[in-house]
C-alpha cells in the first residue's frame, strides 16, 4: 500500500486483497454469462485484468488497449456492427460517461448485448470511500480515480437509450477490510447479504439488450447475415489469431 493520504491506480489496487476479491467475483459473472451470448463481434472496453471474453465463442473479439487502440467515445466500428460490448468500470473512469454510453449504443446492433460492472455507492465499500475522501488526510479505500454511478441511475441511463435490462445482480458484502485474513473471516456474510440486503453489495452487474422499437424480425435476420459476411476490420483480432 501507499503512504497515508496518497492514492494508487486501479491496476495496482487490483493486486491488493480486496482488489483480487472484486476481480474474482466479476470474472465469475462473465464466465457464467458470455458463453450463451451468440453473434460474431464482441468488444471489451476497460479493465484488461478481467478476461471478460475468454469463454465467449464469437469469432471476432477485441480488448481495447491490447487488440486495438482507440478513444472509447469514438470507436472505430460501423454503426450497428457489434453483438456484445463489455464495460467493466469503463463508465466510472470515463471523462464523459454519457458520451461513452451513447457511442456503445451506436455500435451495438439491434438485440445486441451490453454488460456493465459498477461500484455501488450505496454499500459499505462506497461509504468507506466517501469518508476517506472527506478526510483531508484520509486514504481512500478504493482508487481515487473515477466516480461511482449508482445502480438505479445506471438503469435510468440505459432506459433512455432504449436498453432493456434482462439480468442484474449485486455482489461482495464483506466490510471494506484490507487484509486477506480479515476478508476471509467475513466470508460468512456473503450468503446473509445476498439474501437480506442484496442491493447493498459493493459491486453490481447489469446485462442489457438494445431494443429498437418497431423493427421487424426479418430486418434483424438480414442484418445478422450481413454481419456474418463482413467483420469490421479495425485491428489485429488477438483472440481469433490465438485460437487458429
From TrEMBL:
- Keyword Chaperone part of the UniProt annotation: no
Q: Name one GO molecular function term.
A: methyltransferase activity
Q: Tell me which domain of life the UniProt entry assigns to the organism this sequence originates from.
A: Bacteria
Could you list this entry's UniProt keywords, alphabetically sorted.
Answer: Methyltransferase, Transferase
UniProt name for this protein: Methyltransferase domain-containing protein
* One GO BP annotation of this record: methylation
What InterPro entries does the record tag this protein with? Answer: Methyltransf_11 (IPR013216), SAM-dependent_MTases_sf (IPR029063)
Q: Where is the Methyltransferase type domain?
A: 68-116
What's one Pfam family here?
Methyltransf_11
Amino acid at each position: 500500500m501507499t503512504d497515508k493520504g496518497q492514492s494508487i491506480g486501479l491496476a495496482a489496487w487490483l493486486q491488493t486483497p480486496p482488489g483480487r476479491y472484486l476481480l474474482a467475483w466479476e470474472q465469475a459473472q462473465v464466465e457464467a454469462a458470455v458463453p450463451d451470448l451468440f453473434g460474431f463481434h464482441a468488444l471489451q472496453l476497460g479493465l484488461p485484468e478481467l478476461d471478460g471474453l475468454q469463454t465467449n465463442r464469437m469469432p471476432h473479439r477485441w480488448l481495447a488497449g491490447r487488440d486495438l487502440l482507440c478513444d472509447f467515445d469514438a470507436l472505430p466500428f460501423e454503426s450497428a456492427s457489434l453483438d456484445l460490448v463489455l464495460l467493466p468500470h469503463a463508465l466510472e473512469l470515463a471523462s464523459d460517461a454519457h458520451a461513452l454510453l451513447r457511442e456503445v449504443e451506436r455500435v451495438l446492433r439491434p438485440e445486441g448485448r451490453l454488460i456493465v460492472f459498477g461500484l455501488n455507492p450505496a454499500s459499505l465499500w462506497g461509504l468507506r470511500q466517501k469518508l476517506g475522501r472527506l478526510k483531508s488526510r484520509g486514504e481512500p479505500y478504493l482508487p481515487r480515480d473515477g466516480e461511482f454511478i449508482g445502480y438505479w441511475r445506471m438503469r435510468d441511463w440505459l432506459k433512455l437509450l432504449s436498453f432493456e435490462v434482462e439480468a442484474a445482480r449485486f455482489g461482495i458484502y464483506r466490510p471494506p477490510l484490507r487484509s486477506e485474513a480479515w476478508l476471509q473471516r467475513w466470508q460468512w456474510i456473503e450468503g446473509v447479504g445476498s439474501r437480506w440486503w442484496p442491493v447493498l453489495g459493493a459491486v453490481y452487474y447489469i446485462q442489457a439488450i438494445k431494443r429498437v422499437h418497431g423493427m421487424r424480425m426479418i430486418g434483424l435476420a438480414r442484418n445478422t447475415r450481413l454481419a456474418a459476411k463482413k467483420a469490421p476490420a479495425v485491428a489485429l483480432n488477438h483472440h481469433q489469431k490465438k485460437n487458429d
